[in-house]
User: Fold these one by one.
Assistant:
Number 1:
Amino acid sequence: MIEPAVPSRAPRWLLMAVKSAAFLASLPILGFAIYGPNNEQHIPFLQLANDPSLYPGDPYAAALPYYSGVLWHLMRIPFRYVPEVALLVALTLLQRLFFLFSAGRLARALSGGNEIAESVVWCLFAFKVVPFLGWGTVLPVNFEHTSIAVACFLLSLAFMVEGKPLRAGACLGLVGLANILHVAYGILLLALVVAFTRELRTRWNTLRGCLVALVVMSPAMYLALQTMDLPRIEPWVYLRLMWFYVPQHFFPSSWSIREWLIVGLAGAFVALAWVFGRLPHGARQTLLGVTVGHLL
């Protein structure tokens, strides 16, 4: 593990107090809701799984059993025995805690074990970090799969920085279980981080981590492959639907001038991380952190 270059300790009770305050502050600042974005897709999936007589003749409901998100398939079990509202409240709170933990864990890894940096990042994300590009929120008001996928990715990156390939691969596999599309994005981003960071290229065992990731995410891959034989809609219909639903996710032509400037800035930081790869450790870690932040 990388040794911190500066003193990084504070009383444990103080760090816990800061984290607790950040979590509690996130509830009114970020908001808190039982139902919200993406739930209109997944709550019917859970309801239909537990009561197949619901939504007779609905074509959307007929497609829900083939959904390839393993997370929501697993959620069918607690939703069968626990009241829906109570479970969604508990899951939303746990999701937020997990995300703050993962973000702080990455900060600690990038700073060489600095626990103060970890607490600072808890406070940062509690005050509503908004993605530079596209649409969405890093921490949503409700329980949904994207936030969990991103949290698992942050944890994977933290373990990668610390040179723990098996744990990094396991967390990357969890990204696939939460959202198989996001694992594709995550693999690309992790590949860029390794490619532009010489220290990681020389000491990170890519093969072992990738094998673990594939094993962990194999249920999601199996579910996705099962859908290949199902009837397909025309590509232009799908693209049209995506244009009306989330154009920022799929169509760069919908981005504003400000968002294109952000893309250029992120590219500039990647170039800096590459060109100045021989800088002292502290400067390299700072560049890596800023680059990852912009790409996220």
Note: The chain has one domain: 12-295.
Number 2:
Amino acid sequence: MKPSFTLSLSFFLLSFAFASCNDDDATPEPTPFVLTDHYVAGTLTPKSNTYSSVYLISFLQNNKAVFIGSGNNLTGDYRLTKDSLIVEISDPNNYRIARFGINENHELTSAYYRALTMEYGATGTLVPIAATNQLAGKTFKGEEMKMGPTSFRKDLLYRFNVAGTSYGSGVDPATINPDANSFELINNSTFKYKQGSTTELGFVVDQKLTVFRQSGLFYFGTYTQQ
């Protein structure tokens, strides 16, 4: 009887060890991709000009999408397939179509944009919506361009307050008040400021802040987190 008991015990221990090994090596299920947990952030450059502006596209339930630029927000529809993402605003007075290639890793591989009859050179990144405010307490520095290729301010700073609800900008760090300009926070990584004839729209991706400012003329810049 002893040999039989020893053999049974050995088999039990071997089976337990094998099962434990399989549990340890088990690959967790990938998190399902949900488009409404992301937004598109990108830039537009008219083919007849050299200046760039910033735009965003937020995705809602029931295949609705909101285009956000320096003007009024526009609501349309989106279609997502295995290799393309198309956003269309059918209003004939504000017609827009944005068409993106998308790969199996849910990265945008190409971008096309048309408003009414005007086509734009476009860029776009599909950005996960962050759980926390990505602007709070941060400072970014870079060169601001005016109406395209003209350098306007080489060392412009954007400084956001600790709460991530307002910002100040300028070239002299001693004079920047981060509580100067209250803004609308969008998707926890984008700000939109509007006061009178001035609008600023900017987003953070990979620790870089991209901003378009409309104030009579057009200003654009990409700023690195300090």
Note: The chain has a mean pLDDT of 90.
Number 3:
Amino acid sequence: MILLLVGLILFFGSHSISIVAPLWRDRAVLHVRDYRWKGLYSLVTAAGLALLLLGYAQVRHRPPVLYVSPSWMRDVVFVLMLPVFPLLLAAYVPGHIRIATKHPLLVAVKLWATAHLLINGTLAEVLFFGSFLLWAIIDRISLKRRNVNPPVLRPPSALYDVIAVTVGLGLYVATIFWLHGVIIGAPLLASSSR
């Protein structure tokens, strides 16, 4: 559990600097130069993510169960997860989805975390997915207050939306039938525990 907690602190701590101390962050970037800041930020984030995933993998099978979801909740989770991959991809292409949602990556994280919290009720899972959900909510509120919108690099195009939705739904199908089992070790269609 220690690795999971340290990973949560490092990962979300690095991701929250702009939320809790934006002026300090700006001064630090000026002081150490942008490329050094990005390098340090990337190292801390990568270390946090590695510890987070290792810690979660260690404790996910043994922690206390806080709640058990009804079996029909699996169907709700499949529906909630449907837009996650298209939104994730829409965050990185100049389409209308990105403009309409403003921060599609945060919307994707909120849907992903909520869906997983509905079906996974152990202490480790609640800490893991709950942290992502809480961070995404706080980050979105912070971005609204700071009036920060993602930069528009080129004019939006419906073609990018089609690509994001098509590739995203392809990833969704691949995740259901194969990737979740390979990456997480819990096949979605062969087990009712995920």
Note: Residues 64-194 form one domain.
Number 4:
Amino acid sequence: MKKTFLILFLFIFAPPLFAGNNLIITCSDSSCIKSSDLPLFNESNIAPGFSNTQNIKIINNRSDSCDLLFKLNRLSSADPLSSVQMLTLTRDNFLWYSGTLHDLSDNKTHELGNIDSSQYKEYQWTFSLNQSVGNEYQLQNNTFDVDFNFTCNEESSDNLFCHDSAPSQIPQNLKATSGQNSVTLTWDEATDDFTYYLIAYGEDEHAATYANPHIGGRGTNSYIINNLSAGTIYFFKIRTGNGCAQGPFSTIVSATPGGQTLFAPLPATSFNPGILGVQSTIPTTSSAETANCIHIFPYAFILALILNLILKPYHIVTLIISLLSLTFDYYLAKYTCQKYPYFYLFNLFSFVLPLILSFKKNHKKLY
């Protein structure tokens, strides 16, 4: 059994009127009824970085469990504005779909999971406009509708039936620049197929406390994260996604914003608790930390090597110097420079070289 109903989207980039309408949809065995005929979104004169979230509550009063599906349909002619407007669907901090309106109006049906008989599920629909859009998008408008379908009396599952191909590439060269109660992230864009970027951040090295899956689609290579407290070290990572399929996270970078110290700060603007689909992450590092490794380590190596060469007759002293330098390497690599494990080899060489020189000189004894 299939029932279809429409929800109108109207997006106009042109003086400021924000309107939205949370909806309740109740489905019985004979029909589905909406709580309102108003559009889910009806936005006018929105600015770059605008974001609005509305809820759709689906109540299944049918005698069977049903799979919920949706399709986004374009009612207006093709327009460039759709390429910078994001639409994201979440439920219980799980990301179901995200992408630009252009990407999601692909005439394909997408699954939103199963709803048991006499149960309901609530979905959050977030509409946003990229931070980086320019004046070329002003005075443009477009209209979409959403086509919902219930499929009942068939084998159902609450698992996500995702038919999109997962991105394999990782956004490269992620960098974090501190600002006034903000951090600006920049990166090199991935080249495979994807419909959105997701940024996650937190105050621990996992960067998995808050996430935003609607920062932009293809063509986006920077994002400003606001409402951060000064003097706090934040960790960030980014990944791409393709509709419902997730790509792997990038390296984790860190930054400490300036400005004012915020007591009990809220999540950054447009970020929500939860990671919205966890994927593996490349080990933590940052451009600043890497620079520290590069600048600090050669001096430590040269100092250890010189002392060992000068003191090579004193076996115990040179051994202690080498152990101290290796201990320094261990903590440096563990806490800041995981990408540079070869640091151990340099300081080990500072101990081995005097041994080799002594062996050549004495032939039979090392010291």
Note: Residues 287-362 form one domain.
